[in-house]
Design brief:
The structure is a single chain. The protein has helices spanning 3-10, 57-63, and strands spanning 15-16, 18-23, 30-35, 38-42, 47-52, 68-72, 100-102, 108-110, 115-125, 131-142, 151-152. By secondary structure, it is mainly beta. The protein has one domain (15-152): Electron Transport, Fmn-binding Protein, Chain A (Pnp Oxidase, Chain A, Roll), CATH 2.30.110. The strands form three sheets. The chain has a seven-stranded antiparallel β-sheet with strand order 3-2-6-9-10-5-4, covered by helices on one side. The chain has a two-stranded antiparallel ribbon with strand order 1-11. A hairpin with a 5-residue loop joins strand 9 (115-125) and strand 10 (131-142). The two termini are 21 Å apart. 24% of the residues are buried.
């Protein structure tokens, strides 16, 4: 079977949409990216995993031990996603205009998200073209109780 044929059904695996965001407290620079590969992997301790394409500036900050937040996109507000679909030039960093605040542990919480999870790097693995980050959950915030998390279905498991 061709790889492209195998990837069709893989794309049907539903995922959420998330903005992973981190700030470097020494410079005040905030960075983030749109993620869809996020999953809870443990109850006790509470651990989540996320896949990150190497080369993203946010990944370097996460690997250096900076606390980060996984902002869960809700169905109530989607306009801010346009800043993250294709990435952005550092000169047009969307965090300069998007309403956000820092959580208890310094994670970047987007005010328009449904909810957010502050995390700390536990470990990483590199099974393929993305690195897998395992992160301990430090705190969580519900910002819009009535909203439902966005669900994303891809046309193919071979591309975003």
């Amino acid at each position: 079977m061709l790889q492209s044929d195998k990837a069709i059904a893989v794309g049907h695996i539903p995922s959420g949409l998330f903005i992973v965001a981190v700030q470097d407290p020494s410079t005040g620079v905030t960075d983030g990216y749109l993620a869809s590969f996020v999953q809870q992997v443990s109850f006790n301790p509470l651990i989540v995993s996320l896949a990150i394409k190497p080369g993203r500036p946010a990944f370097d900050l996460i690997k250096s031990g900076k606390k980060f937040a996984i902002n869960i996109v809700g169905d109530h507000e989607k306009a801010y996603l346009k800043h993250f679909w294709k990435g952005y030039d550092p000169a047009t960093n969307p965090f300069k205009e998007l309403p956000h605040h820092l959580g208890e542990f310094g994670g970047v919480i987007l005010d328009q998200a449904k909810s957010a999870i502050e995390c700390e790097l536990l470990s990483t693995q590199k099974p393929g073209d993305h690195d897998i980050v395992f992160a301990t959950v430090l705190s969580s915030y519900v910002l819009n109780q009535e909203s439902k998390p966005m669900v994303h279905i891809r046309k193919s498991g071979a591309d975003y």
